[in-house]
Amino acid sequence: MSKEVNFETLRTVLNSLLKKAFLENNISLLQNQYDRNKSVEIDQKAALDQVFRDTLLEILEDNYDVELLQKYINFCIETCRLNMTTATMPVVLLGDIFDALTLDKSEEMFTFVEQGVHIWKEDLFFSACKNNLLRMCNDLLRRLSRSQNTVFCGRILLFLAKFFPFSERSGLNIVSEFNLDNLTEFGSDSSSNADFYMEVDYMDSTEKAVKIDYNLYCKFWALQDFFRNPNQCYNKVQWKTFASHATNVLMAFSSSKLDEIQSKNVDVGGNAMETSNEEETHYFAKYLTNQKLLELQLSDSNFRRYVLVQFLILFQYLNSSVKFKSEMYELKPDQIEWINQKVDMVYDLLSETPPDGKGFAKCIKHILAREEYWNSWKNDGCQEFKKPAATLVDNIDNDSVTDNKKRNLSKNKKDSNKLLGDLVKDAATSNKFIMGNQELSKLWNLYPDNLEACKAKERDFLPALESYFAEAIEQIDPGSMIEEKYKKVNDPNFGWRALRLLAHRSPHFFTHSNNPINKLPEYLEIMIRKIAKDRPDRNTQETLETDNAMENEVDDELLKGTEGDEQNGETEDQSQRETEKPKHTPLTPEIMEIAAQAIGPNWTKIAQKLDYRADDIEFFKTEYKTDALRCRNILEIWVEDDLDASVENFIYMLEGLGLFEAAEALQNLNV
């Protein structure tokens, strides 16, 4: 070749030679020419890369034969292994091919990419091509419809899962984000608020149509917003909405059982279909949300399973500890108890849903148990998985085993003759410690990180509040007839441990209150009553009201102070002021009802004063029909969460808001 060769002339020569070598499947023709041009200063790799892309365009102009294109990519892979082209060239050519092919042809061509996953994972291609392959797959996913090309989308995602290492952080969602763009829209026309009935042709003549009203329809599809963003459930108002909707939907599932025949005669879209010998399975990425289809959808076993599994996934997330979950996202004991009850209910519904409900429920339980391992692995920082070190061959004869034992004994003798400094140095290289005693060294080196060992769950010796205070809760019941001096609250050791436990486990410990605390036993009695009210085994409203009354009596006693020992030194005016201290009257249901009627449409001012947001106020408007019900519900929540909620404080709040008529009504009632 002439010494005055340039890029274009080299490109022309390689172009004709590449076509000939490809048609004859003889890569040596191209390799010989490549070797002869090594003395040329022009970058041959860049020239040959461009020639491969030019030839591909000519092939695509003639036909779209997938087999021919696959052979062409294989030919390019061989040139990469001979260091004639850059390692990224095969994936670049694949990207050009997918840009030119239709979706049907692209699906056929993608089979070649799937089958060649072992090629892309080779050291030559992996580091160079991983970003190009990811970009190519994302470009394909943008062209595809998630609802119409569901299988192809799944194949692409499975390929990426096989190609990238298990610990590849780009595909792990480290910070546990949710796809908040996945919105589910459903009808909200006021004209559709009427109840309706649907007669389905697969029903027996003796069966009655199931009543599906607009309220159930809205609650059912509104749950998808909580499945989309589970963190909403940690909001107090949103939790009540979710709990109410979930209870209604699960009760609807429980009241409408499915049998084997009925589940086979309905497809997942909610349309009646004829049975055939060949059972066909249908898959929909998203369901239609038309109100008239809901009854048919509820009669389909696959649809039920999808919804019930969504509940289980949500419940598991709410109960699990996620590293990047905010500290304020924590469930209360009553919420955890409610979730545990609903989990059992969902598994029962899955077991009753044909076909093979028990087997499906068992499989789902196993999958969710495996999910806990995945969550723990992510919390630990997604440590990379490595194959264990190679072990000795099992089939070793006894003579060789004896020889190995002898070698180990001689090695131990040599170690015993080493200096202490050498032993410490050898141990430090392997991140171990020499404690001067064999047993101490063994114990110290059981765990590589002693600080993490101290944080382990098995070293958490704090008891649960309910178990520690169980005996004290029984003693505060007047029916137990325990003398005051024998109660646990009067034991100093019990009180000291109780304060430490409350500081770690009880939300009531750090609540703000202006009431003076005089004696430790009296304070512990108040705390124990609050813990007792949170226990799930509180059965009757009468017991709760008794506790409230007793707690108010204790509060009144606390307000009197413990200055009885110093009364001799008090003046007459001081004792008079002490007796004139105002008592805090609790907001009973009757008082809240009167206040709600007096406040009326001004309930929004109360809500804003108690720091409710606009969306919370909108929830009260939609959930309750009258202003009185809305106001009363807000007051009930205030009394439940705030220890300072009393008639006196409420009157002061009303006067500050300018609601003098309501305040006067409460004052007259209080008098």
Key attributes of the depicted protein:
5 domains, 671 residues, mainly alpha, extended
Can you characterise this structure?
By secondary structure, this protein is mostly helical. 60% of the residues lie in helices and 0% in strands. It is built from 32 helices and no strands. Residues 190-209, 270-278, 391-397, 538-544 and 557-582 have low confidence and may be disordered. The chain is extended, with a radius of gyration of 37 Å. It folds into five domains: 7-169; 211-274 and 284-379, no CATH class; 415-449, no CATH class; 465-561, no CATH class; 589-670, Death Domain, Fas, CATH 1.10.533.10.
Short description:
This protein is mainly alpha-helical and 671 residues long.
State the helicity in percent bands.
Answer: 55-70%
Q: Report the structural category.
A: mainly alpha
- The oligomeric state of the chains shown is single chain
Unreliable segments of 5+ consecutive residues? 190-209, 270-278, 391-397, 538-544, 557-582
Supply Rg.
Answer: 37 Å
State the helix count. Answer: 32
Q: Which whole number gives the mean pLDDT?
A: 77
What coarse outline follows from CA principal-axis ratios? extended
Strand content: under 5%
Major sheet size, sense and barrel closure: none
Distance between the termini: 114 Å
Q: How many strands in all?
A: 0
Q: Tell me the number of structural domains.
A: 5
